[in-house]
Amino acid sequence: MTLHRKPEYGRVNRGKPINFSFDGKIYSAFDGDSLASALLAHGVHLVGRSFKYHRPRGFVAAGPEEPNALVTFDRGPGRVTPNVRATTLEVFDGLVAHSQNNWPSLTFDMGAVNDLFYMLFPAGFYNKTFMWPKSFWDRVYEPAIRKMAGLGPAPIDEDADIYASQYMHCETLIVGAGPAGIAAALAASEKPGRVILVDEQYEFGGSLLSTPNMVINDIPAWQWLEDSLAILKARENVTLLTRTTVIGYYHENFLGAVERITDHEKDLSSHKPRERLYKIRAGEVVLATGAIERPLVFQSNDRPGVMLASAAHTYLNRYGVVVGEKIALFTCHDSAYEVIFDLADAGISIAGVIDVRDQVSETIIAAAKARNIEILTGTIVSGTSGKFRVSSLRASKIEDGKITSTWEIACDCLLMCGGWTPSIHLFSHSKGSLKWREDLGAYIPDNPNENVISVGACNGTFGLRKIMTEGAGGSTEYQVNAGAFGSGIIPATFPTEGDPAKVKAFVDFQNDVTEKDINLAVREGLKSIEHVKRYTTTGMATDQGKTSNLNALQIAAKAVYKPVQQVGLTTFRPPYTPTTFGALVGGKDGHSFHVIRKTPMDGWAEDHGAVFEPVALWRRARYFPRDGEDMLAAVNRECLTTRCSLGIFDASTLGKVEVIGPDAAEFMNRMYTNPWLKLKPGSCRYGLMLGEDGYIMDDGVIGRLAENHFHVTTTTGGAPRVFRMMEDYRQTEWPELDVWLTSTTEQWAVIALNGPNARKLIEPFVEGIDLSEEKFPHMAVREGRICGVETRLFRVSFSGELGFEINVPAHYGRALWETLFIAGQKYDITPYGTETMHVLRAEKGFIIVGQDTDGTVTPMDVGMSWAIGKKKKDFVGKRSLSRPDIMAEGRKQLVGLLTDDPNIVLEEGAQLIANPEQSIPMDMIGHVTSSYWSATLNRSIALAMVKNGHALTESNVYIPMPGKIYKAQVSKCVFYDPNGERLNVI
Amino acid sequence: MLLIKCPYCQEDRPEIEFSYSGEAHIARPLNPDDLSDEEWAEYLFIRSNRRGLHHERWLHAHGCARFFNALRDTVSDKFELTYKMGEPKAQVKK
Q1: With contact defined as beta carbons under 8 Å apart, do A9 and A69 qualify?
Q2: CA proximity to A799, closest of A600, A927, A638, A919
Q3: Cis-peptide into A960, omega within 30 deg
Q4: B76, A692: Cβ pair inside 8 Å?
Q5: What's the pLDDT tens digit per position in A535-590?
Q6: How confident is the model at residue A836 (pLDDT cuts 50, 70, 90)?
Q7: How many contiguous H segments (helices) and E segments (strands) does chain B have?
Q8: Radius of gyration of chain A (CA)
Q9: Mean of the pLDDT values across residues B76-90?
Q10: Distance between CA atoms of A98 and A71, rounded to whole angstroms?
Q11: What 3-state class would DSSP assign to A865?
Q12: How far apart are CA A379 and CA A354, in angstroms?
């Protein structure tokens, strides 16, 4: 049975009754209810426990500013959302929600002992109370605090919903569809530009939804609303977005907005996205975001049943719900009288009005008298009583700033109004400056930093007529029946009964910050509001202090005896209200989270059981296990087969750049350390690229196809930055060079064949190229055809074996691979992956840039002085090679390591020491950069960067690893075939 | 997200098409070998790190792929103007 509804009030659809569950109990509601209104209709005020003290809490507000009533919205596995404000959660048939932060139950919460030990939780308590003994922090304090304090638990299941995002563009974006926003939309949409009107609620109207008695241009407010929305809907240039929260206002009128699409829908089978993120670029932005009523800060102002006057107004007029049977009002502002009069007119008993001010206007007194409402002026509320709901208040008469008398007034609901705070959050995101309005006790927008205007209450403009006229930009004069909005005072703090240090007057309900916490912070020396905020955590909860910031600011200002403007204002940051990760991620989750680049032969590798690894954005086959082989067994087999006969490897990921033009050779000469001018067409050279700082940046084999044409290869991971660096020098340093660069990485598929049978395999397929040793020596490149397809055929080797790299247009890659693989069966051909490639090159002492080098390594450090064109006047990085630090003794140099125990494979990254007997901390002289088991050599091998390593050949070093220190001998880097004879297979 | 006018494309395009490329108008010395270690270190490492209007290089990476110069306010983040490589250094109005 619903007890607290007024049948003739509200906009809920009484023809559509529904049921929902809260904490396991089934309640009735109507379509159009929020969870808050539906619970209040059943007299449920207790909905949560507070963050720190576990105090019983109820609804403070009716909108998104709600600090207390956070619930967990539970739609089943993968669809659990904690910390949802019950005031903005639309009820649908079957909705399930739970209260949070209580154990074992909402009415019997063990954590409430915190409230009795409040002296343990003063401002900055994290930093003070739990400091000693130090070892207690990890084991005792932190786990206990984490269990006791906090909000709802984060979900653990994978999100079952999908999310979407889209860009939008418009000439005018209007944020907030209250009276100001709608007036602005009506005016803006008369012009031809695109207009988007956005509101976070499921219905447009804003404050009009709570004020049906208003009459606008002789039309009742709700009729005017319906008519205006019909006009807007009919205009083709208007887009209306409900349930859409503008969460952030970024540079140059770029705003993010999240639309909630399915959270209010019973049926999820439609597979619609749960939420959609709009990225809106607007020509002009009109902010019509309204204002938020401010609570008053007094003892026990957090008891369930104590709420904002505007909230009671909304519950009555929008939802037809009465929040109490005997309602009192504590105010310092005229605006709340409209609420109390509406409640009285609805037949609700009014326990009295306590007004801080010594005087109120004759109009108000007369209106109160007509309704038989008593107004107590010069009076405050100095406390409340009641277990899980307010049952009485203490009214105290104030004279000369002191309490002179106190008496009890029974009530089951206490409304409060501490004035109004313009919602400047978005304006503040856009970096507009603010100014202080003393009469409002609030900041309002001042100089904009974007093409934006603020209209209505968010601009400090109050009173419906003024708000609407301002919204319309002066183009329309609105006439309304409402009287003046009135005025008020901003008392900030009140005198207390008894010891002020024991008063718990809450400022920030969500983070449990009281007036005395702020005073304490100021006494402890924190004078800036930014410091007070961080010390007390006021305004740092999920509501970002929507109801608390200005109260905190004014209390702090009062405590330091300074005007508010000198204390500052904390910065608002996006998002305006808490936003799901899903909305921000959009569709880019799982496989689409980031790009995976695949080579033309990737599918073949997958079909043949390759194990893959990521290399930059590519996925590359790491090894091809056969018959249950583990990685080591597979790699050993792949290495031995390649060395003895033939291996096939997908090298398509290598970066490729075409360098073409009359000045191509000169450009290459400047970019790379090596000399290029005299390299003959048809020849290749190993190219080494430095940064201007002299450190190795990239390497690769480069073929000169013609006088003015180079085919450059880069490392897989380095391709984008190498190309960018080349373009940078070409465009900005040497624009006089006549040369073009084209990235061709994805245009070529590259098949590397290594092993003594490599030539025999390709010979039958190649046309137009003489493959003989004399005509096609090592480090040569030829153009011809293979299997009828054009090819650039390189004779190069990254394994030390006879090797070819066959470049063909990418879409022929897999066909050629399959042809060669089938023909290679007679040579027992093996596909191999990056792991075997690494072992084969390490056996030859070839470096991998980025593995053996780390961005602080010079060519001399890795023994590659031979790659530097000594006679060249200049190249990128040359001057740095004679910098003092680079010439200095004691640099780490690349060496080989042979462990004493040949079966020990060192850990890559392990540190090297010279003497294992030294005391800890030991002097580290280097580290292992590459380390493998070499099946060919039947022992382990490693490369390392060691201080003065080139001088340490044949001396011993030690490598501490978990459990043991291993001994190794420093060797040359080349472990296998040091004279390179294996390249010369005839 | 900023809008950036590419001086080559002559269009305002969203920031995600561009990438930052360091301070502008620092020419690579024509004869690096003639520089002292200090002078070379100055060229390599020392940047003005200005608060306020700052000359920068940007690359229209996902557009025309050209580098250009810009005058940008490091406090507001906004671009004052952009101009082609090789054009004279934009003057900062006092």
Answers
A1: no
A2: A638
A3: no
A4: no
A5: 999 998 999 999 999 999 999 999 999 998 888 887 899 999 999 999 999 988 88
A6: very high
A7: 1, 6
A8: 38
A9: 94
A10: 6
A11: helix
A12: 6
Q: Where are the domains of chain B?
A: 3-84
Inter-chain Cβ pairs, chain A and chain B, closer than 8 A: 54
Nearest-angstrom CA–CA distance, A99 and A84:
10
CA A842 to chain centre: 41
Phi, psi torsion values for A470, nearest 5 degrees: -65, -40
Dihedral, CA atoms, A180, A181, A185, A186, nearest 10 degrees? -30
Closest CA to A756 of A800, A695, A792, A703: A800
ipTM tops the 0.95 cut: yes
Tokens of A276: 């959609």
* Distance between CA atoms of residues A509 and A302, nearest Å: 7
Cβ A607 vs Cβ A814: under 8 Å: no
Helices (H), A569-714: 581-585, 602-607, 631-644, 664-671
Q: Which residues pair with A597 in a beta bridge?
A: A618
Whether residues A732 and B40 touch (CB distance < 8 A) is answered with no
Whether the CB-CB separation of A459 and A445 falls below 8 Å is answered with yes
Q: What distance in Å separates the CA atoms of residue A375 and residue A391, rounded to the nearest whole number?
A: 20
Contact criterion met (CB below 8 Å) for A918 and A952: no
Q: Which amino acid is at A649?
A: F
Q: Indicate the DSSP class of residue A597.
A: B
* Residue B53, C-beta contacts closer than 8 angstroms, at least 6 positions apart: B71, B72, B73, B74, B80, B92
Residue of chain A whose Cα is closest to the Cα of B65: A727
Look at A883 and B3 and tell me if their CB atoms are within 8 Å: no
Q: Which CATH superfamily is domain B3-84 in?
A: Folate-binding superfamily (3.30.2270.10)
pLDDT at A146 over 60: no
Quick check: A417 and A332 in contact, CB under 8 A? Answer: yes
Does the pLDDT at position A110 exceed 80?
A: no
Contact across the interface for B78 and A252, Cβ inside 8 Å: yes
3-state secondary structure (DSSP) of residue A152:
coil
How close A736 comes to chain B (CA, Å)?
A: 12
**Quick one: pLDDT at residue A124?**
66
Closest CA to A68 of A505, A508, A415, A387: A508
Token duo for residue A63: 């909108």
Q: Does the N-terminal peptide bond of residue A133 adopt cis geometry, omega within 30 degrees of 0?
A: yes
Domains delineated in chain A: 1-157 (3.10.20.440), 161-293+421-482 (3.50.50.60), 295-418 (3.50.50.60), 500-567 (1.10.10.1100), 654-826 (3.30.1360.120), 889-983 (2.40.30.110)
Provide the CA B67 distance to its chain's centre, in angstroms: 8
Distance from CA of B88 to the nearest CA of A (A): 13
Nearest CA in chain B to A694: B44
CB A700 within 8 A of CB A714: yes
**Do residues A375 and A266 make contact, with C-beta atoms less than 8 angstroms apart?**
no
Contacts of B78 in chain A (CB under 8 A): 251-252
Give me A427's structure tokens. 């304006």
| Residue labelled with tokens 């792929």 | B65
Cα–Cα distance list, A172 to A206, A238, A446, A684, A939 (Å): 19, 10, 20, 60, 72
**What is the pLDDT, as a whole number, of residue A405?**
95
Residues in Cβ contact with A252 at an 8 Å cutoff, skipping those fewer than 6 apart: A281, A450, B1, B2, B3, B78
Q: Is the pLDDT of residue B84 over 80?
A: yes
Is A449–B85 a contact, with Cβ atoms under 8 angstroms apart?
no
User: Quick check: A880 and B21 CB within 8 A?
Assistant: no
Average pLDDT over residues A15-24: 96
Cα distance between residue A882 and residue A860, in whole Å: 11
Rounded distance between C-alpha atoms, residue B12 and residue A975, angstroms: 57
Chain A residue with the nearest C-alpha to that of B66? A731
Which backbone phi and psi does A503 adopt, to 5 degrees? Answer: -80, 130
Does the predicted model carry a pTM greater than 0.80? Answer: yes
